[in-house]
Write a sequence for this structure.
């Protein structure tokens, strides 16, 4: 039952349009800093572009996908018309206004602070207010997801909450709490300085606040992808979920342990002591657990589908899989990129290993593989799967869909592998250009060139994706039927309360964050004389 | 599949799941206890290791005045290097150090966030204004190393490249005899 189709389509279209623009900027950036491009007469344009790319890809695009997908899940999994549709539209328009408000100063070169803000660099206040509006708009979605679940529970006392909705609400709570770190940084520190109420700011404290958001936000980006792994893929390839319970445990683990680990982003920072760095490192290791559970459960689910199709033997079932099914293709690509990206992530989070790659191009390679690769390719898959139900029209050209997915996978490999390599060689990130004429840098020129080519393969794939969706709005009318989620092999009839509600886990999430962040933040806030003069961007 | 098979399968799945859930919960509780223990016992604290400095007064007095920047040979044979980063260069722009010697790098920022990375080594630290970064290092190979600023520090970031010159231990000792602070700027 999808009633508010326009609402969901609006979220997806805005998400993907913004994604298309940011993708083009990304490809341009890679061209300009490669030996293929000419040096910019004004390198400052590069940082404007980088700020826009990061802000859209980090805050606007995944948030809108999670929201649109969340509304679709709420209506179709609960079989219940969305409660608060008018509020949902309010949230949507807040994001539109916020995104436009943020992008104007960025385009004018008045807010080139990148999406990680970097105080004491201070940009135009409208950039920050725009970002805050985007976040507040998304908090309306969080509230709506919670309210819709509550309404459903009242109507279905004691019944197991459908897995897709259980995960969706967990993702929304994770986001609400994750965003608090950056919100505190913006509201307490940056915005007062950017409007001129204060002239100094504690840059070290700001970095700790931001690290609160910066790691867990990745798990928020990941949530729609994991929901698709569990509740779309098995159905789309004719299988079943191996274990509904395992799925719930994975989502609960993300909720609890993804939050209090962000300080591994400050391993090289002078304002955090060794102890908390170590604790956060240990916690980060723990986040591998839900991903390992997921890889196990999803592989088992895919094997079930293969055996139902007549697959035999220890590995023979793999050939029985429907490899021409875009959903399976997307899943396979996503898992490969998650594997490489995850291995890189374990290196980043290691207290000692991080030193060799901290802030190099390796990091860019790592998170593009995880977010741009493993996560975004499943966003594509989600859109392809939902589109016929949202538009009432079939997506006819599956060959084009497969080409698009292949191009994205190849493009991501060609882009990120050379980045990892030059990162090991010590190439710093976020630079407008490199002097490849310097004999010490010249050997990296070839790798950077490959990355730039990868960027254009990605751009081609992204354009193809938009074309497929746009064509899907005009293809012949079809009845796609009810939107369904995968069923488990053993569909639960009852559910223990711990696996059917979020309260306990949200309490643990908040408690762990307070133990892991409360003390360092308090100490930093109470240390005298660490505030430094603000440096205004674009000031003459 | 008969009803009995299905029932049996469900039992196995439930058992496996319960085991996983137990392990996961135990780990989470242990981590929580660890974090709380470290906090309450003051076993691991940010504060004792965190040093602060006022970036607006660096040039007036204290450790990072201009005359104190560069490399110095300590009485015990170790070397201390002091440097600052500011938009868009390091001071000194060329750091000279001996090979096979324990070296302490002490650095800070005079304005925004910068980073020091010495290519081909694991020396990699952030310079956050208001705080002093300290890093231990040791070089076995002589020669020049590039030292880019690895953190975005506004529009001139791409031009912020320093250099580290590692020279033979004896040669360094010879040059240090004259006293003062060494660098390879202009050489
Ligand atoms: Cu710099």
């Amino acid at each position: 039952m999808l009633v508010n189709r326009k609402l969901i389509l609006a979220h997806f279209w805005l998400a993907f349009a913004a994604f298309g623009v940011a993708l083009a900027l990304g490809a341009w950036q890679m061209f300009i800093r490669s030996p293929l491009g000419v040096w910019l007469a004004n390198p400052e344009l590069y940082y404007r572009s980088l700020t826009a790319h990061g802000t859209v890809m980090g805050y606007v695009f995944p948030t809108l996908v999670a929201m649109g997908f969340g509304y679709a899940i709420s209506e179709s999994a609960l079989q219940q018309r969305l409660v608060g549709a008018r509020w949902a539209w309010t949230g949507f328009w807040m994001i539109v206004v916020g995104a436009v408000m943020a992008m104007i100063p960025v385009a004018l070169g008045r807010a080139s602070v990148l999406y990680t803000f970097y105080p004491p660099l201070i940009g135009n206040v409208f950039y920050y207010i725009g970002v805050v509006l985007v976040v507040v708009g998304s908090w309306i979605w969080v509230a709506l997801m919670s309210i819709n679940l509550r309404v459903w529970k009242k109507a279905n006392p004691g019944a197991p909450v459908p897995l897709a909705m259980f995960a969706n609400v967990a993702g929304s709570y994770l986001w609400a709490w994750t965003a608090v770190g950056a919100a505190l940084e913006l509201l307490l520190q940056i915005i007062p300085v950017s409007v001129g109420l204060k002239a100094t700011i504690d840059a070290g404290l700001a970095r700790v606040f931001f690290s609160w958001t910066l790691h867990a936000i990745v798990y928020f980006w990941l949530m729609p992808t994991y929901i698709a792994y569990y509740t779309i893929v098995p159905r789309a390839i004719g299988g079943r979920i191996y274990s509904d319970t395992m799925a719930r445990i994975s989502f609960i683990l993300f909720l609890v342990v993804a939050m209090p680990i962000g300080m591994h982003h400050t391993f090289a920072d002078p304002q955090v002591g060794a102890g908390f760095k170590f604790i956060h490192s240990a916690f980060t290791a723990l986040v591998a657990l839900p991903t390992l559970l997921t890889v196990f459960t999803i592989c088992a689910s895919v094997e079930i589908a293969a055996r139902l199709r007549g697959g035999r033997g220890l590995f023979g079932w793999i050939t029985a899989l429907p490899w021409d099914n875009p959903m399976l293709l997307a899943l396979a690509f996503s898992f490969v990129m998650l594997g490489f990206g995850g291995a890189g992530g374990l290196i980043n989070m290691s207290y000692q290993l991080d030193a060799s790659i901290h802030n190099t191009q390796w990091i860019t390679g790592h998170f593009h593989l995880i977010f741009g690769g493993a996560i975004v390719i499943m966003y594509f898959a989600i859109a392809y799967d939902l589109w016929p139900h949202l538009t009432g029209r079939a997506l006819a050209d599956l060959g084009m869909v497969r080409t698009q997915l292949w191009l994205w996978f190849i493009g991501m490999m060609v882009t990120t592998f050379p980045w990892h390599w030059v990162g090991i060689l010590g190439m710093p990130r976020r630079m407008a250009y490199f002097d490849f004429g310097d004999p010490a840098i010249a050997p990296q020129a070839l790798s950077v060139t490959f990355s730039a080519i990868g960027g254009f393969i990605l751009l081609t794939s992204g354009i193809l994706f938009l074309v497929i969706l746009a064509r899907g709005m005009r293809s012949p009318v079809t009845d796609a039927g009810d939107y369904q989620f995968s069923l488990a092999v053993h569909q639960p009839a009852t559910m223990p309360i711990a696996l059917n509600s979020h309260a306990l886990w949200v309490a643990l999430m908040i408690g762990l964050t307070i133990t892991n962040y409360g003390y360092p933040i308090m100490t930093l806030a109470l240390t005298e004389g660490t505030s430094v003069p603000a440096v205004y961007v674009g000031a003459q | 599949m008969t009803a009995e098979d299905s029932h049996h399968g469900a039992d196995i799945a439930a058992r496996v799941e319960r085991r996983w859930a137990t392990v996961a919960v135990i780990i989470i509780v242990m981590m929580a206890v660890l974090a709380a223990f470290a906090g309450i016992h003051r076993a691991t604290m940010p504060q004792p290791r965190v040093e602060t400095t006022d970036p607006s007064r660096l040039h007036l007095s204290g450790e990072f005045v201009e005359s104190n920047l560069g490399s110095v040979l300590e009485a015990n044979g170790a070397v201390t290097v002091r440097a600052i980063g500011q938009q868009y260069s390091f001071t000194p722009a060329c750091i000279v150090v001996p090979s096979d010697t324990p070296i302490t790098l002490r650095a800070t920022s005079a304005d925004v966030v910068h980073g020091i990375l010495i290519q081909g080594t694991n020396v990699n630290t952030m310079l956050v204004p208001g705080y002093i970064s300290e890093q231990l290092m040791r070089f076995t190979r002589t020669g020049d190393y590039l030292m880019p600023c690895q953190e975005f520090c506004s529009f001139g970031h791409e031009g912020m490249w320093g250099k580290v010159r590692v020279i033979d231990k004896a040669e360094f000792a010879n040059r240090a005899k004259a006293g003062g602070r060494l660098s390879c700027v202009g050489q």
Chain B touches chain A through 67 residues (CB under 8 Å). The mean pLDDT of chain B is 84. The pocket of copper (II) ion is lined by residues B 85, 88, 114, 149, 153, 157, 160 (CB under 6 Å). Chain B has two domains: 1-45, 55-176.
